[in-house]
Amino acid sequence: MIKRTFQCTVCGTEFPATKTKGMTHIGHVKHMYCFKCKTTQPCVQTDVEGTGAKLGVTKWKRKSSQ
Ligand SMILES: [Zn+2]
Question: Is a pLDDT exceeding 90 seen at residue 10?
């Protein structure tokens, strides 16, 4: 099972996602239920188990605002 971490782009909460429907990459945006916002929000994937890579949501925001 591949563990992935998603971060809510609205409140910044990070939570793990263990669903394995296809491979996704860092920076992948998925609409997921945020337990803090209590609604579905666009969430950005910040890491993939095995790669050790991390991408801050700040970088993603900066890229999308250009
Ligand atoms: Zn949220």
Answer: yes
Torsion, Cα 58 64 65 66, to 10 degrees, reads: 120
Range of the domain at 8: 4-64
- Per the structure, the count of domains in the chain is 1
Residue 58 CA to ligand 1 center (angstroms) comes to 15
User: Ligand 1 centre and the CA of 36: distance in Å?
Assistant: 5
Determine the distance separating the centroid of ligand 1 and the alpha carbon of 35, expressed in angstroms.
7
Dist. CA 38–CA 61, nearest whole Å? 22
pTM value surpassing 0.70: no
